[in-house]
């Protein structure tokens, strides 16, 4: 049933896009309910997108319940059509709305935001951390909807998954008298503050094999509540990984239980301008008023993160645009050239600034002054067109050292790291895939050990990773060993998927290292003794890698040299790219289906009208 509803919701989103993209409020009528896509402007002038489902046959003389549905990290964006939460999908089902008519509200967190704060160690604390701007705006939305519609203040409910699960705990811990009940799914709470919500009906779900948000987070929160006498319900789903929201909302008792709850003493939301000021003093990223940058694109400033620009955009050589965030060196000294870190986000980080915590926090806070460099974080799916476009961006940076370009990524970004070095094997000076060996050996992008055997690679993986199999990373290591490659592998014994915080700060040896998610033993291997660099402090290893030292005779062999005269992305000089065997980047082909000629080099197949695109081998 929920899958049918998901198709319906997706169709509604497409209809919104076709009928009126960019409108402040778009109503989508169905036979039973109305879904409106809205943009809310808060008390401080800040904006947040959200959708609201209004019950069918709405009667202003009837008091209706309202459910706040908070999405996970993968739902971030700015289109107001992102993936809905499982709560929204389940509760918008026509049969459910017939039996339990209710308002549903699902805000969309912007790419750089979060429903709840975290400190530099990814820890959550109500007492030590202020609310995020998004959390405050959500409360303001609830307040405005209660003024606009006939909503029962005794029946306000909240549910969320993953990042939204943490947001659910955040909402009830900050506002213990606002909600009648809560359904957090695979989220992180604050056990130290459990006393605030001991009275509240809570049904908490978590997958027993969650490789993204450790199940211990829910166990600790529930234990703290029960110790205080709470009647919290806890369902640990045996054998389930991170996607526990689907089986959670398939629990037949959950919906009747939720709407049965009443708040005997409903209170008001607790938020203020003072809270915002506290957040700004803590260095939370808040956007300055947007200004136009060259080319007509909008550029946002960034408070608390000096040096970052978050909304850069260049034309993709395969069509469309590529967005990326950029960190520049603290200062550009005369007669000095600077290395570049290309940081590829994971599946849950597809938002500007989502290049990984190791670059956004660890490099920025701990190493930027000692090792000044550019950091480029593309916000996109991983494809040859995106890679080639970002490489063009890297080559255009002022005072850039093209012999010291490094690529790294976690999870989906780890897979992307493996892919990009295979497609541009002579461009990079070093690579570090983390927990991203691939999904299936047959279905993933193959690791071409022969083409990159010259390239220093230091990979990291948890030995019991339940998301991206450790065995695939081990396969890559063994392939490198077979050809005499330069491949170091650090295995975190007993660690699951979420280990990106460990590798950038790794200082060598086989001793245990303390990370945000636990303490793990590091086991180090080298594919070819005598070939791997013996440096065991990761950040020192990274910044000493230089393409010249790997192949002095080739020197500029792998650089994509330009023919003079032509213009490429961003108006920079562009010509045919050399050094990439088999590619012709300026090919014009007749379209066999009719219409205009097709120009390009990368087969991005959006539909049959693009079927003429082919990989073209140069003669």
E-strand count: 23
How would you describe the shape? elongated
Low-confidence stretches: 1-31, 272-304, 350-355, 439-444, 510-517, 552-619
Share of helix among residues? 25-40%
Q: Could you give the distance between the termini?
A: 55 Å
Annotated CATH architecture of the largest domain: 3-Layer(aba) Sandwich
Beta content comes to: 15-25%
The CATH class of the largest domain turns out to be: Alpha Beta
| Count of domains | 3
Report the CATH topology name of the largest domain: Rossmann fold
How are the strands of the largest sheet arranged?
Answer: 12-13-15-14-16-17-18-19-21-20
Q: How would you describe the overall organization of this protein?
A:
This protein is an alpha/beta fold and 619 residues long. It has three domains: 25-279, Alpha/Beta hydrolase fold, catalytic domain (Rossmann fold); 287-550, Rossmann fold (3-Layer(aba) Sandwich), CATH 3.40.50.1820; 576-619, no CATH class. The protein is built from 16 helices and 23 strands. The strands form five sheets. The chain has a ten-stranded mixed sheet, sandwiched between helices. It has a seven-stranded mixed sheet with strand order 1-2-3-5-4-6-7, with helices on both faces. 46% of the residues are buried.
Labels describing this entry:
single chain, 619 residues, alpha/beta, Rossmann fold, ten-stranded mixed β-sheet, 16 helices, disordered N terminus, disordered C terminus
Give a quick summary of the entry.
The protein is of the alpha/beta class. The chain has 3 domains: 25-279, Alpha/Beta hydrolase fold, catalytic domain (Rossmann fold, 3-Layer(aba) Sandwich); 287-550, Rossmann fold; 576-619, no CATH class.
């Amino acid at each position: 049933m929920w899958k049918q509803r998901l198709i319906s919701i997706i169709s509604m989103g497409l209809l919104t896009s076709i009928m009126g993209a960019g409108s402040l409020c778009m109503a989508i009528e169905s036979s039973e309910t109305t879904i409106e896509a809205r943009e809310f402007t808060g008390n401080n002038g800040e904006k947040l997108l959200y959708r609201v489902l209004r019950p069918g046959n709405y009667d202003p003389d009837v008091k209706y319940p309202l459910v706040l549905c908070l999405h996970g990290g993968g739902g971030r964006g700015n289109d107001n059509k992102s993936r809905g939460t499982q709560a929204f999908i389940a509760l918008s089902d026509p049969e459910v709305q017939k039996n339990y008519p209710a308002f549903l509200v699902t805000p969309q967190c912007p790419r750089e935001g979060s429903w709840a704060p975290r400190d530099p160690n990814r820890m959550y604390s109500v007492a030590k951390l202020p609310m995020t701007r998004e959390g405050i705006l959500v409360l303001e939305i609830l307040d405005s909807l209660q003024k606009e519609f006939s909503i029962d203040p005794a029946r306000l409910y909240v549910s969320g998954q993953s990042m939204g699960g943490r947001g659910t705990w955040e909402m009830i811990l900050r506002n213990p008298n606002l909600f009648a009940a809560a359904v957090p799914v695979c989220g992180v709470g604050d056990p130290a503050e459990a006393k605030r919500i001991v009275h509240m009906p809570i049904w908490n779900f978590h997958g027993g094999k969650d490789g993204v948000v450790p199940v211990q987070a829910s166990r600790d929160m529930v234990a703290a509540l029960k110790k205080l006498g709470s009647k919290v319900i806890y369902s640990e789903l045996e054998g389930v990984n991170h996607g526990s929201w689907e089986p959670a909302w398939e629990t037949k008792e959950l919906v009747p239980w939720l709407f049965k709850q009443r708040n005997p003493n409903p209170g008001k939301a607790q938020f203020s301008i003072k809270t915002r000021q506290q957040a700004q003093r803590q260095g939370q990223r808040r956007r300055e008023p947007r200004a136009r940058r060259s080319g007509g694109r909008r550029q946002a400033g960034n408070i608390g993160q000096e040096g970052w620009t978050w909304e850069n955009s260049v034309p993709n050589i395969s069509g469309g645009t590529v967005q990326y965030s950029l960190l520049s060196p603290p200062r550009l000294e005369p007669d000095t050239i600077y290395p570049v870190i290309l940081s590829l986000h994971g599946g849950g980080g597809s938002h500007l600034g989502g290049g990984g915590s190791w670059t956004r926090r660890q490099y920025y806070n701990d190493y930027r002054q000692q090792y000044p460099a550019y950091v480029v974080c593309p916000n996109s799916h991983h494809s040859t067109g995106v890679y080639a476009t970002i490489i063009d961006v890297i080559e255009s940076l002022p005072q850039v050292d093209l012999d010291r370009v490094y690529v790294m990524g976690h999870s989906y970004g780890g897979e992307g790291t493996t892919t990009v070095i295979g497609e541009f094997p002579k461009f990079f000076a070093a690579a570090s895939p983390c927990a991203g060996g691939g999904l299936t050996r047959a279905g993933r992008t193959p690791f071409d050990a022969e083409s990159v055997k010259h390239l220093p690679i230091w990979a990291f993986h948890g030995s019991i990773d339940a998301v991206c199999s450790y065995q695939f990373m081990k396969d890559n290591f063994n392939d490198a060993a077979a050809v005499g490659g330069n491949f170091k592998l650090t295995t975190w014994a007993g660690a699951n998927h979420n280990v990106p915080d460990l590798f950038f700060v790794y200082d060598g040896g086989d001793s245990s290292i303390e990370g945000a998610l636990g303490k793990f033993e590091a086991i180090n291997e080298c594919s070819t003794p005598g070939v791997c660099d013996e440096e065991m402090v990761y950040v020192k290893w990274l910044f000493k890698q230089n393409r010249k030292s790997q192949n002095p005779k080739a020197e500029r062999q792998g650089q994509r040299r330009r023919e003079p005269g032509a213009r490429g992305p961003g108006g920079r000089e562009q010509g045919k790219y050399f050094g990439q065997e088999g590619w012709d980047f300026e090919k014009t082909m007749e379209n066999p289906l009719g219409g205009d000629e097709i120009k390009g080099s990368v087969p991005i197949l959006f539909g049959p009208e693009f079927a003429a695109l082919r990989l073209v081998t140069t003669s």
